[in-house]
From TrEMBL:
<protein>
    <recommendedName>
        <fullName>Galactokinase</fullName>
        <ecNumber>2.7.1.6</ecNumber>
    </recommendedName>
</protein>
<feature type="binding site">
    <location>
        <begin position="110"/>
        <end position="116"/>
    </location>
    <ligand>
        <name>ATP</name>
    </ligand>
</feature>
<feature type="site" description="Transition state stabilizer">
    <location>
        <position position="20"/>
    </location>
</feature>
<keyword id="KW-0119">Carbohydrate metabolism</keyword>
<keyword id="KW-0808">Transferase</keyword>
<comment type="pathway">
    <text>Carbohydrate metabolism; galactose metabolism.</text>
</comment>
<feature type="binding site">
    <location>
        <position position="212"/>
    </location>
    <ligand>
        <name>substrate</name>
    </ligand>
</feature>
<feature type="active site" description="Proton acceptor">
    <location>
        <position position="160"/>
    </location>
</feature>
<keyword id="KW-0418">Kinase</keyword>
<dbReference type="InterPro" id="IPR013750">
    <property type="entry name" value="GHMP_kinase_C_dom"/>
</dbReference>
<dbReference type="InterPro" id="IPR036554">
    <property type="entry name" value="GHMP_kinase_C_sf"/>
</dbReference>
<comment type="function">
    <text>Catalyzes the transfer of the gamma-phosphate of ATP to D-galactose to form alpha-D-galactose-1-phosphate (Gal-1-P).</text>
</comment>
<feature type="binding site">
    <location>
        <begin position="26"/>
        <end position="29"/>
    </location>
    <ligand>
        <name>substrate</name>
    </ligand>
</feature>
<keyword id="KW-0479">Metal-binding</keyword>
<dbReference type="InterPro" id="IPR019741">
    <property type="entry name" value="Galactokinase_CS"/>
</dbReference>
<keyword id="KW-0547">Nucleotide-binding</keyword>
<keyword id="KW-0067">ATP-binding</keyword>
Length: 372
């Protein structure tokens, strides 16, 4: 099977950005908290060449569609993510050249693996390259997040764009979403005799919807009531007092998830630094339970995948991504991976769910050049 990069015709500039899975730290990013994603081997590749005029011609290898837009157009659909990057770069003072762009991707769409951020970051890399300007990698996640928030209208945090840009092969990215400080934490699964099995539940997944926005709004309202800049400023020791100040039970559950999830990220980083990768398993499972019970963003398909994986030997399992569908990660011993996968497939069939996609992932590289 050819990769996305191999399906593109050579052009003046060619870059790729990966999708991501989040090992732990869900819905903490827009609360100025901590996350621990790693990049997938799956990537979106973009090739591009300059045009003389200020217009952009974008072709999707997946759909066969070509969209042409200029500075006056408000673009909708998949091409809006491309137009959003043009807009964000121009807002940042970059004289973005007109270009023809071709896009190919291996990142599953709608699975919670950050296909949109992979597209944004790869397009940004090509346009910056064609413009001949220096936009440091560390500055690109904020620009890509602004593109998605303000142009596309998806209220995402910065984790997806940071992971797609900054991750390093063989490592998880410990990211402080307030300061944008990063640490590359070694995550040698093979050395520990482990695998990460991804189960794509095939349940619908979307960020541009009322549920995601409602949870973000609840967190912002809670922070205002508590008199803090963001829920990041409440730690687990201060959680009981914070919850006592909130009258709304739903808001209390949302706050409890964010505060305890931030602590789970810190605890997971500690065990990875110590080389005790299996100890991350119970933290992953606790994260899923919190998403299910306090943040209320799981669905029967992902709950089933987590339960069955644990029953068949997984050290831990959790949903990854924004919720309401998407993927589950299971931390499994190499020798039990096939048995867990088989058990999950049987459980989906028994429940009448759409058959899942399953695959094993290893930590990959953030944005990289394909031009040689």
């Amino acid at each position: 099977m050819t990769t996305a990069a191999e399906r593109l015709t050579k052009a003046a500039s060619m870059w790729a950005s990966p999708g991501r899975v989040n090992l732990i730290g869900e819905h903490t990013d827009y609360n100025d908290g901590f996350v621990l994603p790693f990049a997938l081997p799956h990537a979106t590749a973009v090739s591009g060449s300059r045009l003389a005029q200020k217009s952009w011609q974008v072709t999707s290898e997946q759909t066969g569609e070509t969209v042409i837009f200029d500075l006056e157009d408000k673009v909708e659909g998949w091409a809006s993510y491309v137009a959003a990057v043009v807009w964000a770069l121009r807002e940042a003072g970059v004289d973005v050249p007109g270009a023809t762009l071709t896009i190919a991707s291996d990142v599953p769409f709608g699975a919670g693996l950050s296909s949109s951020a992979a597209l944004e970051c790869a397009v940004m890399a090509v346009l910056v390259d064609l413009a001949g300007v220096d936009v440091p990698m560390r500055d690109r996640p904020r620009l890509a997040q602004r593109a998605e928030n303000e142009y596309v209208g998806a209220p995402t945090g910065i984790m997806d764009q940071a992971a797609s840009t900054l991750c390093r092969e063989g490592h998880a990215l410990f990211l402080d979403c307030r300061s944008l400080a990063t640490e590359q934490v070694p995550f040698d699964l093979a050395g520990a005799g482990l695998k990460i099995l991804v189960v794509d539940s095939k349940a619908p997944h979307a960020h541009v919807d009322g549920e995601y926005a409602a949870r973000r709004r609840a967190c912002e309202e809670a922070a205002a009531i508590l008199g803090v800049t963001a829920l990041r400023d409440v730690d687990v020791d201060g959680l009981p007092d914070a919850l006592a100040k909130l009258d709304d039970e739903t808001m209390r559950r949302r706050v409890r998830h964010v505060v305890t999830e931030n602590q789970r990220v810190l605890d997971t980083v500690d065990v990875l630094r110590a080389g005790d990768l299996r100890a991350a398993g119970p933290l992953m499972t606790a994260s899923h339970e919190s998403m299910r019970d306090d943040y209320e963003i799981t669905v029967p398909q992902v709950d089933t995948a987590v339960r069955v994986a644990l029953e068949h030997g997984a050290h831990g399992a959790r949903m990854t991504g924004g919720g309401f569908g998407g993927c589950v990660l299971a931390l499994v011993d190499e020798e039990s991976c096939d048995a867990v996968e088989t058990a999950v497939r049987k459980a989906f069939a028994a429940n009448g769910f759409t058959p899942p996609d399953t695959f094993v992932v290893t930590p990959g590289q953030g944005t990289y050049s394909l031009s040689k």
